[in-house]
Amino acid sequence: MHGQYLEIGGRKTYFPPFVNERFGGRPYWACTFASLLNGVNVAWRGQKPATADEIRALARASGDVDLRGGSRSSHMITAMRVRYGQRMAIERLTPERAKKRLASGWAMVAGVTYAALPDTHRRWSPHFKAGHRVVVLGWDDGRMRILDPMADRDHSYGGQWIQWSEFEPAWWSGEQLWFREGMGLPGPAVKTLRIFAPPRHFKVAGGTTVSARSASDPRNVVRATRILRDSGAAFDAVMEAGTKRYVRVANGLFAGLLIDPGAPGITADIGDDAPGAKPSAGGAGAAGAGAAPNGRAGPSALENVTLAARQAEWDRIKKEIDAGKPLPPRP
Fold it and tell me: Could you report the per-residue pLDDT of 154-210, keeping only the tens digit for each?
């Protein structure tokens, strides 16, 4: 079952086919696993069954023997491993890092104290005051959408707006389970269509938010930055992943990352009819060696930006994991 894309904060954000916990009789018990399935279907773009039976299957896979007593975050981790073969981890991001993820297409399965939410967000069960799980996603200037599994709505439900300042007092910040759009699906093969030597220039209009993506998996937005004034940078290649095309940035803030040349506010000539445009015959790794001033073979432009991309990925991973965990040396 397919979900939907909604425009939030200038970004198309994927919303899963909504499932709620309002099956069977009261008291409802499945908020953890209904919210988990909503998060899962962000990761799988709606390819998992959006049904009460799938919620029950997750509950069984969790090993929780007291479902009506309230399920713990550890039960979600077990359910993901047993039901889908996916190893996940509970995270404890700071509010600022959580906001950045929400702005980049991630969804968070979050624990909350229901009584601490505003009354307008408790209308589905106004007398309930205990612990609860919801999904929040999207980001638009201090607010996001909340999917409450107690909502009596169908698969097309896109949640309610809630201000972060209203959500945070109810939030159990130590129990975060995150799903990035499409992360459960096989990554697209990335290939190089065209290399430009020398690199070309692209323009960015002031006020544009540039979403820069991983060179190895363009589904992942590594950096999203609003450019205040007219600007630009160089790009040295056209890349293709699935049906989408990107340019690879060769310098500046987004060096080594991919951007969509057709995105609003971005102007880039990716045609092959200008001098210096060379079709690539070798896929993602194709490039000839450059020549150093002393006549010896030097690194090609592709090698330089590939290194920059690997370094950007390393920096991103370092920020995402807990401090103190070992990492291999930075490229």
Answer: 999 999 999 999 999 999 999 999 999 999 998 889 999 999 999 999 999 999 999
CA angle 6, 11, 17 (to 5 degrees): 30
Residue range 4-180, CATH number? 3.90.70.10
Q: What is the rounded distance in angstroms from the CA atom of residue 47 to the CA atom of residue 43? A: 9
Rounded CA gap, 202 and 323, in Å?
Answer: 37
Question: DSSP of 75-127, one letter per residue?
Answer: HHHHHHHHHH------B---HHHHHHHHTTTEEEEEEEEGGGS-GGG-TTSTT
117-165 pLDDT per residue, tens: 999 999 999 999 999 999 999 999 999 999 999 999 999 999 999 999 9
β-sheet bridge partners, residue 177: 109
Written as six digits, the tokens of 41 are 């279907």
pLDDT tops 50 at residue 320: yes
Distance from C-alpha of 111 to C-alpha of 176, rounded to nearest angstrom: 7
* H-run or E-run covering 311: helix 301-320
Phi-psi sector, 324: left (phi>0), alpha (psi -120 to 50), beta: left
User: 36 in helix, strand or coil?
Assistant: helix
> Whole-prediction pTM value?
0.67
Containing 174, the helix (H) or strand (E) segment is strand 171-180
Q: Collapse the DSSP code of 33 into the 3-class scheme (helix H, G, I; strand E, B; otherwise coil) and give the result.
A: helix
Residue type, 248: R
Query: Between these two residues, 320 and 274, which has the higher pLDDT value?
Result: 320
Structural domain spans, the chain: 4-180, 190-320
